[in-house]
Design brief:
Layout lengths: L10 H12 L4 H13 L1 H19 L9 H9 L6 H38 L5 H6 L6 H8 L2
Helix pairs in contact: 1-3, 2-3
């Protein structure tokens, strides 16, 4: 047996071998490759290696990951850890903040409207009555409401 240095298989030959295994070569390209395989032992050896890898991959069971696995991995890698409950909390927090701001603005508008109207009419005695547009409470009003 002679000690020959292994021939380097270039990228073009590697791509042709892969396409041959996939069956995506034309008939003319298959004929050319088969002629080259008949004359080159290193190329035949590489084809055998690629066939064994393809067989292993075909026989292996694909692993199934939970939905959004890649998103969770990328967030962990970048240091952004969010869970479903955290995102729900953030969503609800922003909804409540917006609702609180809207209620505050409505209260300011209603209060300023009441101050402008009721002070000029001099119907209410205190600022609270003016802000909420309440009539002034008297003892007769309290007795009337109590008897209902």
């Amino acid at each position: 047996m002679t000690n020959r240095a292994p021939r380097h298989i270039d990228r073009f030959d590697e791509q042709r071998l892969l396409k041959f295994l996939e069956g995506s070569l034309s008939d003319a390209e298959v004929g050319d490759l088969e002629e080259q395989l008949a004359s080159d032992a290193h190329l035949r050896e590489r084809l055998g290696e690629l066939r064994s890898v393809a067989t292993l991959l075909d026989n292996s069971k694909p692993e199934s990951f939970a939905p959004y696995f890649s998103d969770r991995v990328m967030k962990r890698l970048t240091g952004q850890t969010t869970t479903e409950s955290e995102s729900l909390y953030d969503s609800l927090r922003w909804i409540f903040v917006r609702a609180a701001v809207a209620c505050l603005l409505i209260a300011i508008v209603v209060g300023s409207y009441n101050i402008a109207n009721y002070q000029s009419l001099e119907v209410a005695d205190s600022l609270i009555e003016v802000l909420f547009g309440l009539p002034s409470a008297t003892l007769s009003d309290a007795l009337a409401y109590g008897s209902l």
